[in-house]
Amino acid sequence: MDAIDQRIVAQLVKDARSSYAEIGKVVSLSAPAVKRRVDRLLETGVLRGFTAVVNPEALGWGTEAFVEVYCDSNVSPDRIRQRLEPLHEVVAAYTVSGAADAIVHLRAANIHHLEDALERLRAVDMVSRTVSTVVLSTLLERPPAPEPH
């Protein structure tokens, strides 16, 4: 990924609806040249797709929590992912260093829905215990920068 690719990615992060011609003006390339680079960035996995950024609260998913998940024994990350996928309230899950086996990000409609989701998470066969932290407010949320600082 060169400097032009980084600038293309930065423009797409800023506004994914930008046309190839608009991006080309910013990076001094033709629209077809930008398209070729975007296609290559998609093929190599730098870009994983294009999407709308939605306010979860506006869709009725305003309650969220981060949950430390502790498993009974050594459990592979793939098995953890397989067990979490059916839980629709799980919006992200991560393997982590430290005592917990994974951190799970849950979203729910309200505190009662969150409690139900937590109970279903705790009922997953490999889960021995959880530690939950309910989010009160979001202080900062931003997309990754196209180039590390």
Brief characterization of the structure:
By secondary structure, the protein is an alpha+beta fold.
Question: Tags for this entry?
Answer:
149 residues; alpha+beta; 4-stranded antiparallel β-sheet; 5 helices; 36% helix; 20% strand
Number of strands: 4
Query: Biggest sheet, in brief?
Result: 4 strands, antiparallel
Helical segment tally?
Answer: 5
Question: Helix content range of the residues, please?
Answer: 25-40%
Rg from Cα: 20 Å
The average pLDDT score comes to: 93
Structural class: alpha+beta
Terminal CA distance:
16 Å
Strand order of the biggest β-sheet: 2-3-1-4
3D shape:
elongated
* Element pattern in H and E: HHHEHEEHE
Strand content: 15-25%
The parts where pLDDT drops under 50 for at least 5 residues are none
What oligomeric state do the depicted chains represent? single chain
